[in-house]
Amino acid sequence: MPGRNHKKIAAAVNQQPLADFKVGVDNVIFSVDTAQNRLLVLLVMRQQEPFLNYWSLPGTLVRQGESIEDAAYRILAEKIRVKNLYLEQLYTFGGPKRDPREDCESYGVRYLSVSYFALVRFEEAELIADGVTGIAWYPVKQLPQLAFDHNQILAYGHRRLRNKLEYSPIAFEVLPETFTLNDLYQLYTTVIGEHFSDYSNFRARLLKLGFLSDTGIKVSRGAGRPASLYKFDAEAFAPFKDKPLVFI
Amino acid sequence: MPGRNHKKIAAAVNQQPLADFKVGVDNVIFSVDTAQNRLLVLLVMRQQEPFLNYWSLPGTLVRQGESIEDAAYRILAEKIRVKNLYLEQLYTFGGPKRDPREDCESYGVRYLSVSYFALVRFEEAELIADGVTGIAWYPVKQLPQLAFDHNQILAYGHRRLRNKLEYSPIAFEVLPETFTLNDLYQLYTTVIGEHFSDYSNFRARLLKLGFLSDTGIKVSRGAGRPASLYKFDAEAFAPFKDKPLVFI
DNA sequence: ACAAAAGTGTTTTTTATACACCCATGC
DNA sequence: GCATGGGTGTATAAAAAACACTTTTGT
Known about the structure:
2 copies of one chain form a homodimer. Chain A has 7 helices and 12 strands. Chain A is an alpha+beta fold and 248 residues long. In chain A, a hairpin with a 7-residue loop joins β11 and β12 (227-232). Residues 1-13 of chain A have low confidence and may be disordered. Chains A and B meet through β1 and β6 of A and β1 and β6 of B. The first copy, chain A, binds a DNA duplex (27 and 27 nucleotides) through α6.
């Protein structure tokens, strides 16, 4: 029965063994040091093979009963204490051979990495040093060679951060409740670069959009005229949601 | 030794069992029927439990030695023949309990779905009917209830499609090599809705940007003045890459 | 001749850009 | 009083938006 035989073969081809995965989460956690105008990323020193003593993105493997996003929040909370943060899924890297453990220790198990991208407020972020693991904010302009494909993941996260700042109001998730317009401008300058509107125009545009409300409270930063504290008004922003809008 | 004991306990807490995963890929494949001004998505009828006889996104499980992206292309090629397409990773859905198979048949294995989003040219897309599996283009405005969390994935893909059209030149990946400005306009209208510039302004803006070159060739579509065929000039577009740019 | 589709032009309004300048404070 | 940072205004250029109009075809 050639027909039947053919079907069997086709079925066999269609049912090559499925890959078994362990799923890891790697976080690209950014912050902006406005005092020194630097964009920073959180790195930890690896304590085990592979890539022992390499800097890497803080990551973990997903446990039973834990959602991917839970794992992302867990590893973040293990490394850093923050009040405000913005976190979103970045990309899933899953080619075979991206993790050297696939060759040796395992029985054909693949390692897949779901990366998350986070932005936290530098001034209030508290690194959790456990006395063993090295942990540090690194300027993204002076990165060391990282473990695994983490340089690639980081580069992808950096691109996403810039895009998000340009098109979405994520800056306000990481600024304090109230902030000066200069705080906001500095944040944009540090991440995007100096190649956009000057402060005066930036200011005028943002204010005209109408979702920044002046609290009337003034703060003085050393010399100079005191600045007004502004507040992001989520309700006033609502109409702009899902509309193309460029902040820079 | 209380110190050592404490360390042991901490280690135990930190090493709850890892989850074991099977990784699936689900494709949200869109096309635009310009003749009827409809946005379509490709659905297949499930042939097995769970969700037997439910419509679902075309998907597959990742096999040994296969990258995630390879699996996405494989399942796409199994269902449809196309010349041009745009494909990118969408999102990874991985909460526990998103797949009912986790409860019964498996030994604690989790199912994770890496979704991909694709845009293909409707006119030249050829569905591959194998005589068994139902397969169809569904208008996104009249979707049935889908298997798993596929309605959610689809909604997410739809949002991404709109954003991509607004900010990126993906329309040209799915239009034929040469196209009329009206073809382009229809594509935008169908996906985004009628709420953007009229044809005249759309046209003026796109032409001024300078990355559409007139081939000089004219085509006639029934009555009316013949239209010029244009061509996307990737080189002329290069300077706009990575710059905020809004097409609509 | 006339409807239909393509393409051009014009007018008005809104934004962007580049500045110059005024304001309030610390020292 | 003057340097410093905050804030306002203005002149010019560019772009968006609305819409009227011309051109070229099929019937």
